[in-house]
Amino acid sequence: MKLLLASLTLAMLIFTGCSQKNPDVDMTGKDGKSTEVSADKKADNLSGMDSTNGTSSMDMNKNSAESDANAIAQAIASLEKDVNKIYFDFDKYDVRPDMESKIKSNARLLDSTKAKDFSIKVEGNCDEWGTDEYNYALGLKRAKSVKESLISYGVDANRIMIVSFGESNPECKDSNKACWDKNRRAEFKLLP
Amino acid sequence: MIKKLLMMIVLVSSIFAYDATVEIVKKMDKLPKIALQDASSIDVNPVFRKKFYKIMVGDLRVSSHFDVVDEYLKSSYEGNLEENFMSSLNLDLILRYNVMFEGDGTIIAQIKLLNAKTGQVDSEKIYKISKQNRYPFLAHKIAVELNDKIGAPSIKWMEQFVIFAKYTDKKKSEIVISDYTLSFQKIVVKGGLNIFPKWANKSQNSFYYTSYNGRKPTLYSVDVRTGKRQKIISSEGMLVCSDVSKDGNKLLLTMAPNDQADIYVYDKRTKQLEKVTSYSGIDVNGAFIDNDKRIVFVSDRLGYPNIFAQKIGSRSVEQMVYHGRNNNSVSALDNYIVYSSREKKSEFGAKTFNLYLISTKTDYIRQLTATGKNLYPRFADDSETIMFIKYYDKQSALGIIRLNANKSYHFPLKVGKIQSIDW
Question: Which of A105, A113, A155, B388 has the fewest CB atoms within 10 Å of its CB?
């Protein structure tokens, strides 16, 4: 209830705006010489919006549901640690021959008993070169190539979803070739 | 004095630095020589006075319609023989301003335009803006009206709001509304990954953006007055609103409901989605042309990103650009197409991106930039001005190209990296 009230208050703060002001242009100077013009604009009162998820420090009682959630989170973290990242060549989205064995190994792990109840999210990423809109599409093609490869190694297609993060999720922030090589990749996340 | 003058010139040139574009296409006639005179009271904060002056002088320079004197000059508002002629500078015009603050935060600018040949007052006007942080728009308004007064082609685009997304960290970004110089900035969306903002209409009272904070990328519209957010559509994989039709009713979306990025037209009124392109590779960055009947877009269907056009409802695709090996972003206005192209090699680095302008009616190609990484070009309404993103090693800037004057300017973003822009 406390959380609900806090959220409502936050939402009210976030979405409170003021009425629109049209440019108030008065071109009729009293003495015919001096006129007054308002540079106020239509979006004078730009309203901010905070889409941060409402992560609250709500104090929950320890219960079995929480410990189950912890166990799942730990299992996911442990599995994700062992999944290989798949790297790509500059401007390319086909799986490199040297990455096939890594995808095969991932497929084995993701199809194992301890992982098979989780959904798989393949995230495609790009280096900083090029326009970001194109990079989101390129990242998606990389994720799709990896998904198709996983399927070819026997992973159930219905377990896999893909998403692109373009260049928004760099592994390395330096501006050099070694760094860009690391950023052109697909990563794997497991979802309960 | 000399020191001050030098400092001022360095400061102004660093903010309004330009790199000359490659070709001189149209020579301007002799430009009117103008000086600005700050007649504000000594009570006005000197830091504010310098900022205001910098934006005013920058606006006039970016307009490319004035020969602007760099020197920061003070004067009385009434003027005298020396102040009204400034004979040593051989001026045509003097713009004298007196900036004042009211108790409620309103800024008032009293403006006097003088003919420096006669020393006579040509006109006077009073401008005001209700909040102090929006003073750049006050300066832009004055510049736009002064420009109109001398009969030069309109620079009304200076009054447009720019909206851009900037990366602040991994999978984190903010959406910001600003003026074209980035002097005014207001964060309107923050928290998580929110990208590809796009104005919903010409009046700029709402915008679209994609949120990556839910299970699927989701397109929202936001009313800038109220902050009210409305979900438009979601897609697996990716989702970008690349363009909005002139009437504001149709959106060109790149989305991937079946893991495959293609371009769709979404009709806001009927909520119907029509698939426009269909290709197993990449189709992205659609832009309406020919009265919203056709689109240009980027596709890698020849094995590398290039610019193509397609009539909506038809499957026939036309290649629009026969130059470059990596043309990855496009914007269109009337018969003109501007695109960014990665150069194979240049003396400035192996992977430089430059902007090029073509006409759909001729084979003419005009190179617009010469150095650095210049991406994401977007036309203003007047087709004489293009905005783009310029990237440096660790920094990004908002660039402005004035086509007729053949000049470009850039305005660095101090914090974060510009992801996408619209205006």
Answer: A113
